[in-house]
Amino acid sequence: KCTYFSTGKCTYFNSNEIIHQSIKDRDDISNHVLICGIHPEIIHFILPLRASYLPEKSLKWIVILSPSLDAELHDALSVFPKIIFIQGSPLQPENLFRANITTAEIAVILSSGFTKDNDENGEVEEMHDTGPILIYKTIKKINKKIKIITELLVTRNIEFLLEPHSFKKLYNTENDNVPEYEHTSVYASGEVYIPSVVDKITC
Asked: Which residues contact 119 (CB under 8 A, 6 or more apart)?
């Protein structure tokens, strides 16, 4: 059962064991949402997927693959049905297979977070996207049909997600030094999420 809030979300009261070693080859878990990485506010991503108007039978499994999960977040997630946490780094292909990446429908790659205090020379921020970029490329090699949403902190790092033939679409004809990331397939299709861009639009 769930209690309805004015936001249209719900909270479940049954606590579930969400930690699993592997779901590889499990026939009952497919077409799931695989979340690579963890974020303190991940609950806000989960809530719309567990809205009160969604019948429980229609809920997709949500599998979180991350090296760690703190106790408070574990307790918050365990009240929702059909959520699994697998401990491991998404950077390692064997862990992606443990999360049944081959049958997943959607992969969401979260950035591990970046603080401006560490940005001393402008290069640290760019390097921070290395993890999500490597995970993106690994998943694409394993499952070419999967829908991927990748969080990047630096817009220009979109270039590393592009196929070679897509680079020509980056630059306009008037000024070749101005990349047009909004013309790329990964940006237009929603495969890339740039928090700073959203902040500028909504603020």
From this structure: 125
Centre a 10 Å sphere on the Cβ of residue 144 and count the other Cβ atoms it contains: 7
CB 57 within 8 A of CB 39: no
Distances (CA, A) of 60 to 141, 155, 166: 24, 30, 33
Average pLDDT over the chain, rounded to whole? 80
Q: What value does the CA radius of gyration of the chain take, rounded to a whole number of Å?
A: 18
- Per the CB < 8 A criterion, the answer to whether 55 and 111 are in contact is no
Cα angle, residue 87 at apex, residues 84 and 90 outer, rounded to 5°: 100
Q: In whole angstroms, give the CA distance from residue 178 to residue 123.
A: 20
Task: Please report where in the chains the tokens 């429908």 appear, as a residue.
Answer: 105
Do 71 and 105 touch, CB atoms closer than 8 A? no
- pLDDT at residue 114 tops 60: no
In the structure encoding, which two tokens stand for residue 161, read together?
């997600």
In 3-state terms, what secondary structure has residue 143?
coil
Q: For residue range 5-48, what is the model confidence (pLDDT) as tens digits?
A: 334 455 454 567 899 999 998 999 999 999 999 988 899 999 99
